[in-house]
């Protein structure tokens, strides 16, 4: 039988998931910190979609050391197919019998990860905040789960998961912890941590983290892992030395956020909503792993002004985790919807004007991404062509912000009241399923079919223009009430040095950190950059270089670098050595290399081992171009 590696809907998987569907995974791993690898086995339950016609299972695999493959304890014949970059080498498993339609079989694969695993980052004690213990965490989105174990590494397949993870240090996974730890205890003071995920999830939400001697202090999931509460159904986990400030940062708003989105969609489906504050090398603001959001420590700004990230990751509990894009070409269905719901949460908690304020910040991020790629670039489309491409290369604010603006446009087109009726319907129809943009369109048209006015508007809508036109979409009329004062201040700076304006600390007394972000973004838009002297004056008078809010500090450094102010080079390189979030790292390197490329390259070489593999690869492309 011919080997089939081209599958429908998702071009970024080599698996034949159209013939077999994995519906359950049991992951048994030992975490070996000294060897920096996971060792164990994964058993996957596959359901046949054909009536005995497919006698081979093809899985995604990338730099995994496979020991054996078996069915019911009997070894099976297997081989790794030739490399297909950037997707790895498909694992072809030959079955010893025919399997009837809907029949299930359990395939066990013994394996260990390798040093080329792109999903795992291993930190030495010196790379953690308390300097006491090593640390490991995973980041599987978009196509990195295949570097942990062979799987159907596509968002179009969802499975329940049992985790049985042995480690000398506490473990967190994307499932609910199991209190019963009966069974044979592992040797050498190791503990087996067990988790169940009973809601089917795609492979990119497979998540593990292990490290620290203790995580936190009030309620207890296991006797050796205690947590600090941030709400009646939420805890935060962090290194012990950072616990207090993490708890303070999150406890005021987390439950408010949950209640707000439950009123918009429907009740939370995952039991607990918790947050793990990761070490600073984590490459994203947050990762929506079920039960435990993995979050960057950069949100802990001691002013509660950066926790919009939590509203965003919480919203993923509906958009993305329950209702999922069928492929990364339709990533906006995850991120556009999540950004839309995030801002609806913020409107409930802070007022409608704040939703528009957040959208204005998002529009700036969108324009930056379009400028970076180019207005006609494929990656500036809402629905992209990713055939033969690495989805990470397309990662930007575009699916977030262009997706948000499409949904915001639809809301305004048919009216908010009507759109609000569609939201729970959509998330009910596709609950625990995956979909593409065309199913989204047909579902919306079907829902409003009996509403003549809405139906007419939606049928006359240029759907193809929204889906496939590159560049910026039409700009909405945003409520600017929270940014008008910021625009006024930026215009005063724009008029310098030829005006009578004398900057004073009182200029920003009533501005929030997020308003300062908008102010600095406006300064970055000046056609004529500030002089180095004015850049230094801004930093000194407003105390920007010393800000503990990284959102503010990183933008000030970008302003200074654009101005040619050499005094910000040192602080910029220091920041690049203590944070690995790509939102900050990539634009800072781009700005730094324009003023002093040797320093940019030297800084990267000094810190590349600190960065997550995903971040490291993207910065290499920014600095050195696409490598063969």
From TrEMBL:
Q: Entry's InterPro entries? A: Aminopeptidase_N-like_N (IPR045357), Aminopeptidase_N-like_N_sf (IPR042097), ARM-type_fold (IPR016024), LTA4H_cat (IPR049980), M1_LTA-4_hydro/amino_C_sf (IPR038502), M1_LTA4H (IPR034015), Peptidase_M1 (IPR001930), Peptidase_M1_C (IPR015211)
EC identifiers of the protein: 3.3.2.10
Q: Which UniProt keywords apply?
A: Cytoplasm, Hydrolase, Metal-binding, Metalloprotease, Nucleus, Protease, Zinc
The Peptidase M1 leukotriene A4 hydrolase/aminopeptidase C-terminal domain sits at: 481-623
Q: Name one GO cellular component term.
A: cytosol
Q: Outline what the protein does.
A: Aminopeptidase that preferentially cleaves di- and tripeptides. Also has low epoxide hydrolase activity (in vitro). Can hydrolyze the epoxide leukotriene LTA(4) but it forms preferentially 5,6-dihydroxy-7,9,11,14-eicosatetraenoic acid rather than the cytokine leukotriene B(4) as the product compared to the homologous mammalian enzyme (in vitro).
Instruction: Kindly identify the residues recorded as the active site.
Output: 313, 400
The reactions it catalyses are: an epoxide + H2O = an ethanediol
> Which residues are listed for a peptide binding in this entry?
139-141, 283-288, 581-583
GO terms under biological process: proteolysis
Q: How is the cofactor bound?
A: Binds 1 zinc ion per subunit.
Q: Main localization of the protein?
A: cytoplasm
- Record GO terms (molecular function): aminopeptidase activity; epoxide hydrolase activity; metallopeptidase activity; zinc ion binding
Protein name (Swiss-Prot/TrEMBL): Leucine aminopeptidase 2
Write down the required cofactor(s): Zn(2+)
* Classification of source organism: Eukaryota, Fungi, Dikarya, Ascomycota, Pezizomycotina
The UniProt entry's sequence similarity note says: Belongs to the peptidase M1 family.
> Where, per UniProt, does this protein localize?
Cytoplasm; Nucleus
Residues that coordinate or bind Zn(2+): 312, 316, 335
